[in-house]
Design brief:
By secondary structure, this protein is of the alpha+beta class. It contains 5 helices and 4 strands; from the N terminus they run αααβββαβα. It folds into 2 domains: about 45 residues, no CATH class; about 70 residues, Double Stranded RNA Binding Domain, CATH 3.30.160. A hairpin with a 4-residue loop joins β2 and β3.
């Protein structure tokens, strides 16, 4: 049984877990009028120290329970600028890694140069990540005059 489980595991590129291995194994055993339970396959896979290499799909974060204070949209879809440091946009990107699971990249882009002027990377999506990104952008630029920072009003951007 162990040899058959190892063969199925290798044949399907180490992606099959207990239930899919159970199905494949029972298809092989059917002509012999034999069956094997998922529990037995689970035990044998543990003994062989093998497990599937699949990753859970990303799930959207649940909505915040607190009411988000609405703020005026100062850009109103006008992304044009006449110089640097007039309008910045900020956003977060979810990055799935094999070792650390979901990680988060926070960036700030200057709309005039269309370049990332500040960024920060973390395992946790928190306000601290946004603050580090803002500090990074301010260190890279000299700000004179009015500056608009446009975000999606996510919880990290609207927290105290």
């Amino acid at each position: 049984m162990k040899q058959r489980i190892l063969r199925i595991f290798a044949e399907f590129k180490q992606r099959y877990g207990v239930m899919k291995s159970h199905h494949e194994l029972n298809l092989e055993l059917q002509p012999l009028q034999l069956r094997c339970s998922p529990r037995r396959i689970s035990r044998l896979m543990k003994e062989l120290d093998i497990h599937s290499g699949t990753v859970n799909k990303w799930k959207a974060a649940s909505a915040s329970k607190t009411k988000v204070e609405q703020r005026p949209n100062l850009l109103k879809q006008d992304f044009s600028t006449t110089g640097l440091n007039q309008k910045w946009t900020a956003d977060m990107t979810y990055i799935q890694t094999k070792r650390n699971g979901w990680c988060y990249l926070s960036t700030i882009m200057d709309l005039h140069s269309r370049r990332i002027i500040g960024y920060s990377f973390s395992k946790k999506m928190a306000t601290d990540l946004v603050l580090k990104t803002l500090e990074s952008a301010v260190k890279n630029r000299t700000i004179t005059g009015d500056l608009i920072i446009h975000t999606d009003l996510g919880s990290q951007y609207t927290s105290d």
